[in-house]
Write a structure and sequence with these properties.
By secondary structure, this protein is of the alpha/beta class. It has helices spanning 11-16, 32-48, 63-68, 95-101, 103-106; strands at residues 4-5, 22-27, 53-58, 76-81, 84-90. The protein has a five-stranded mixed β-sheet with strand order 1-3-2-4-5, with helices on one face. The chain is globular.
Length: 107
């Protein structure tokens, strides 16, 4: 199943009003490192979906949200809790490193 796509239009409902933490992968089709991180993010979604909602936002199709949160380089992963961004992870990382960054949310 993996990460669920999210758009500018459903951002408020899916991210800001979520009752559990949300991991958002900001990515684009042309981004090589994004293609490396994408399958890892999908695995995290499949393995931890009961604890954290995992979404992906295509920055080319949804530039407003990316701009609003200051996403300048991709991949950028943002963790939201209670509608607020709590953690920013920039760049491609191995799954073990990402899980370390997300430990507070998936424990």
């Amino acid at each position: 199943m993996g990460a669920t796509p999210v758009t500018d239009a459903d951002w408020t409902n899916e991210v800001l009003e979520s009752d559990k933490p949300v991991l958002v992968d900001f990515w684009a089709e042309w981004c090589g490192p994004c293609r490396m991180v994408g399958p890892i993010v999908d695995e995290i979604a499949d393995e931890n979906g009961d604890k954290i909602k995992v979404l992906k936002l295509n920055v080319d199709e949804n530039p407003n949200t990316a701009r609003e949160y200051g996403v300048m380089s991709i991949p950028t992963l943002l963790v939201f809790k209670g509608g607020q961004p709590e953690k920013r992870i920039v760049g491609a990382k191995a799954k073990s490193a990402l899980m370390g960054d997300l430990a507070d949310y998936v424990a």
